[in-house]
Amino acid sequence: MRIAGVLLAISLSAGIAAAAGNPFIGTWKLDPSRSRFPDEFKVQSKGGNTYAIDFGEGSTETIVADGSFQKGYAGTFLSVRAAAPGTWVVARKQGAQTLLNATWKLSKDNRTLTDYFRGYGPGGVPYNFDYVYRRTASGSGFAADWRSTKETMNSPFVVRITNLQTDGLTIVIPFESTKNVKFDGRYYPNQGATRGLSSSIARRNERTLAITTKYKGKVTATEQLGLSIDRKTLTLTQHFPGHVRPNVLVFDRVRGSSSRK
Question: CA 20, 187, 196: angle at the middle one, nearest 5?
Fold first, then answer.
């Protein structure tokens, strides 16, 4: 019993030390000049004023574009309304919390779409993107397959990673639900306004982590976190079902932020 107790103490101490010294822990600020966050989505006309929209999140949302909030993906509510010819206003909320507001504008030749996207993170903190999309399939008006050709980040984008107990991490990424994951192969519920998501994490090596996120049993994203040799740069590569190109986001460690904090 005494030996077992000593071994248990050693094991717990080692786990705590490993977590405390995890090189991924810290605050990371996006470098837009080295990052790409391409996007693509599909809009299909279902007749009348009804559309099926696939944002590549593992679920197609069918909505009447009348400005009312209608049941959407993962417990959220989506609204689409025509504000003017060639202009849609899109909004998503969860309960009383606004998750995003966006204005879509078609070019005069209907070949490009500009998206002025305004998202809201925890506490209502705003994050702003501007996207320009190119039509990649036949269709009329907003009904088409759209693929981004230009993405502009207009606000700070910071990722925060902290310890979760003795062998886990809490990962906070803007626009995403918070991931509270442990290195045991299990899926843990994400925390945030988007309900029903769960994630698991695995170590590939000492500088690479892999994360898989699911919704109702379907994979909605696979992500890889990679550290530079000097541990000052973090690269987040995100793959989404149905998207040809991954997001590749490059972050610099915020000074004074380290695994010992």
Answer: 120
Tens digit of pLDDT for each residue in 80-125? 999 999 999 999 998 888 999 999 999 999 999 999 999 887 667 7
Q: Which two tokens stand for residue 16?
A: 């705590």
Which amino acid type is present at position 92? R
Question: Residue 249 belongs to what H/E stretch?
Answer: strand 247-253
Six token digits for residue 184: 């045991």
Residues 198 and 241 in one domain: yes
| Domain contains 167 | yes
Instruction: Count Cβ atoms within 10 A of the Cβ of residue 234 and give its class: 0-12 exposed, 13-18 middle, 19 or more buried.
Output: buried
CA distance 207 to 227: 5
Answer yes or no: is 70 within a domain. yes
Count: domains in the chain: 2
- Over 60: is that where the pLDDT of 247 sits? yes
SS3 category, 199: strand
